[in-house]
Design brief:
single chain, two-stranded antiparallel sheet, about 55% helix, Viral_Replic_Matur_Polypro, DNA/RNA_pol_sf, Rev_trsase/Diguanyl_cyclase
Length: about 80
């Protein structure tokens, strides 16, 4: 069961009237995924990287790997204050 406050927050109005949820229709752990999908749908015609989303996500994976490799190199090459 949802609290009174949660019912008021989740309420919506449509042509059929005013409705409030009594129980959560989906788990809260899905909320970020649903929010992200809503953002993608809202921005679909305005923001789309060259080559599409698949190409964009592949570039991000490559950048994350390169960034991790750079951090590892800096950590290996760094000199501690005691060695100076």
């Amino acid at each position: 069961m949802m609290t009174r406050r949660a019912r008021k927050i989740s309420a919506f109005v449509c042509a059929l009237g005013h409705f409030e949820w009594l129980r959560m229709p989906f788990g809260l752990k899905n909320a970020p995924m649903i929010y992200q999908r809503m953002n993608y749908n809202a921005l679909w015609g305005f923001v789309q990287p060259k080559g599409g989303w698949a190409n964009f996500s592949e570039k991000m994976r490559i950048a994350e790997t390169a960034d991790a490799e750079d951090r590892a190199r800096v950590t290996e090459a760094s000199v501690s204050p005691n060695e100076v």
